[in-house]
Amino acid sequence: MTAQAAGGARARGMTQHSTDPLAPDPRLADLRIAVVGAGRIGGEMIRNLALMGVARIDVFESDRRAADRFRDRHRVLEGDFWDELTLGRLRQYDFAACTIDDGAARVRMNQKCLLANVNLLQAWTEGPLAVVGAYPFGALDDCACAECDAGRAATPLAALRLTAVEPDVDPASGIVTSSIAGALSAALIARIASGAHGAVARRAALDTTTGRGASVELSRDPQCARCKGVARPVPIVRTRNRWSVSAAVASVSPETLAQDVQLSDEVEGLSGYSFQVGQLIERFHGGPVPAKFALTVVDGRVVCLDFEDVVRDESCVDGSRATPRRSSG
């Protein structure tokens, strides 16, 4: 959340509002939330957020049938969120919630929210366990990311697995577990937005067969492969995805070709994500690399090179542009 939005939330919290426990919370009315996934977890999260008074909920869903039930009340964007939820678009939101029950999708959402400096919520199920993670990047510059301190983050899950009576194979029980995961995520969004008890990264789990829950606060891991050495907010530079260096520049500044670049996507036929500029030039001959963005170091600080929003802008036939994005610092 931006400082302006956070300040507004605090200001609204000081105003008089209804004592009706079922009344919408006016402190949440101005939030802008992107929900990735409109399945059981996402649907329950969206329903609870709407009941809380959140007016702007955009739904990113690749399955048309799953998305149809939300079209009358919310904006729906179809397709793979990795393509649709660009860094520029993501920065228009206060929160992004990933409800896709897939570890690779959660890693990708963590990667984008970390760079866009947007509060991240993740929710999924593991058998009878409803699991949620909250990473308030927008409210806490030194916030742990979803890939930090993996051993400690798994502690509540491991403790609850010891008490689980049976694996969750009952479809009805699975529906309940998904609903609880969605509701817990909505509650964490409200907690972070209101500033209750301070903003901290947190992983929590609830065993729906026993009713036992566990929660742990997460600290940033200085050795995390994702956010090690990354100072947030990360500067984002929108630039064309072209890789070439003139002979004159190469002769005067040969270190340019040795500059390290970490791509957002794997490149077919190459190993890993990190390459030198010279390698990319040799492989793609001045053309674009198959990546949405890249990280490099400029003057000792990690900088994000955003390719996808430049491509979208260039493809606008009428010359229109998206809503202005918040500054990334």
Description:
This protein has two domains: 3-218, Rossmann fold (3-Layer(aba) Sandwich); 236-314, no CATH class. Helix content is 32%, strand content 21%. It has twelve helices and 13 strands. It has an eight-stranded mixed β-sheet, sandwiched between helices. Strands 9-13-12-10-11 form a five-stranded mixed β-sheet. Helix 2 (40-51) crosses helix 9.
Task: Please tag this protein with its features.
329 residues; alpha/beta; Rossmann fold
| pLDDT < 50 stretches | 1-17, 316-329
Relative helix content = 25-40%
N- and C-termini, Cα separation: 14 Å
Radius of gyration: 21 Å
CATH class of the largest domain: Alpha Beta
What percentage of amino acids are in beta strands?
15-25%
**Strand segment tally:** 13
Q: Can you summarize the main beta sheet?
A: 8 strands, mixed
Secondary-structure element string: HEHEHEHHEHEEHHHEEEHEEHEEH
Q: Which structural class is indicated by helix and strand composition?
A: alpha/beta
Oligomer: single chain
Shape: elongated
Average pLDDT confidence is: 83
The spatial strand order of the largest sheet comes to: 3-2-1-4-5-6-7-8
Q: CATH superfamily of the largest domain, called what?
A: NAD(P)-binding Rossmann-like Domain
Q: Total domains, how many?
A: 2
Note the total helix count. 12
